[in-house]
Prior knowledge:
The complex is a heterodimer of chains A (about 280) and B (about 270).
Chain A: E1 3-13, E2 19-30, E3 35-39, H1 46-51, E4 61-66, E5 69-71, H2 80-85, E6 86-89, H3 102-112, H4 117-130, H5 135-138, H6 147-159, E7 165-169, H7 177-192, E8 197-201, H8 205-211, E9 214-219, E10 222-227, H9 229-233, H10 247-259, H11 269-281
Parallel strand pairs in A: 3-8, 3-9, 6-7, 7-8
Antiparallel strand pairs in A: 1-2, 1-4, 4-5, 9-10
Chain B: E1 2-12, E2 18-28, E3 32-36, H1 43-50, E4 58-63, E5 66-67, H2 73-77, E6 80-83, H3 96-106, H4 111-124, H5 140-153, E7 158-162, H6 170-185, E8 190-195, H7 198-201, E9 206-211, E10 214-219, H8 221-226, H9 228-233, H10 240-250, H11 252-255, H12 258-270
Helix pairs in contact in B: 3-4, 3-5, 4-5, 10-12
Amino acid sequence: MGIQFKQVSYAYRGVKNERYEAILNINLEIKDGEFVAIIGHTGSGKTTLVQHMNALLEPTKGEVQIFNYRLPKKKKEKVGPIRKCVGLVFQFPEYQLFEETVLKDIMFGPKNFGLTNEEAEVKAREAAQLVGLTEEILSKSPFRISGGQMRRVAIAGILAMEPDILVLDEPTRGLDPQGSKEIMALFKELHVNHHKTIVLISHDMNIVSQYASRILVMDSGHVVFDGKRDDLFNHPQFDAFHLARPHAYEQMIHLSQQLNIPFKPVYTKGELLEHLKEVYHE
Amino acid sequence: MEKIKIENLSFSYDKKNEAIKNLDLTIKSGKWIAVVGHNGSGKSTLAKLLVGLLVPDKGSIYIDGLLMNEENIQEIRKRIGIVFQNPDNQFVGVTVKHDIAFGLENQQVPQPEMVKLIEEYSEVVGMSAYLNKEPHQLSGGQKQRVAIAGALAMNQDIMIFDEATSMLDPEGTKDITDFIIRLNKDFNKTILTITHDLEFARKADEIIVMNEGEVMFLGTPNIIFENSKILKEIDLDIPFGLQVYESAKEDETLNKQKELVEALWEYSLNK
């Protein structure tokens, strides 16, 4: 089922009522179990696109289908069920923490969906364990823990609602390299072991190329590429996308030109070194 | 000349764990210093202390020889400016134009000059076509460019960029990086960039490595990268090209390939 966009456009309205099209005529299907990355430079429409995925925005043209729900919704229809299926983790989600304790903060979502205190606590504890928060942290104030931990708390708050699809808007932004690796390892685990569909917005091509099996490139409100990493970084119009290539891939291009080493698409340091060893082994 | 002088500075958020511990530091005029360290190492706390957003528990900060205290703070803020990581927390205007104007209005800059400055700096950050847009019409990265334009228009001698490029895409990062270099080299501003990104940090004159509230290492980028163990110890990634070079040196097969090792070394100097 997943999510389907049918000719979706969204226009913001400014002060003088002028329209500003953020996304235009998007056709897109995200299937259950996919790990999709959305990339594109700032202002290309990535955030606007994903905000449709849990009904934060409704299309001004076209239709979005999320499981059995349709947007724009009917007048009295509630969006709660959509938000339960699709969890959206915003940029800097830790700014939305507000409760007295970490545990209460994580419980807020499930309680909002009508669970009792006891039920919500069970879900919250499960989610906390999933993101690697220790028992000791649960009773602390969410404002007295480190930035990396705050982000985990915010993500646990979404996971406690048990969404099938997790939409992540730049989840590694502002984290140090170690924090980024840990958080990406968490999403990979949620994808592989807990079968969550993941939609990831990121500027980091190293992360995107290592984790996503499908990459969408947005530019001026359009999807200009939809496919696999090898085809993206090798695309004849790649320069027109204004994107960087992953470090390893970039260095591979350089080495193949300078030393005449056969080119192979590589995405990590390990893959690059492995390839070099093969080349020089002969 | 000493632009910034920090003596025996300590600060704690909770009166238990010190975020900054007995820190001493001198920064000379016209230098670009990159402050690196993992989350929670005290980098951002240091930045907030430097602009007087936090009050130290102990020690003193001098900006241009002026002691940071209630009496001098207004004067100090004319000399030191900061751009933060999250632009949503610093967008105050109803439109881009008003947001850039905010600081200038506070400094009572005359109207005609203000208009000129807004045009000039919105151009610099590539936002001149957006002057009448409202914040909700802008992406995170665009808001960050506006915040940077606003700070630059104030024309302060010292600029702190606290992960200021982290909201930007690679092209935006390059634009702002080039601009920071220009500010430093052509306009002789003293620059502090706070970053996790060592590829960015290596462009600075000196790098300060912070760990648990203390300066763990201070030196030129080359000296620090030669001692890359220090950076690994605190979980910071050395630039990719250098990682590849080091791994190749440790590999028996690859290390024998003189031409390859040389090419990897050359590449590591730039990437």
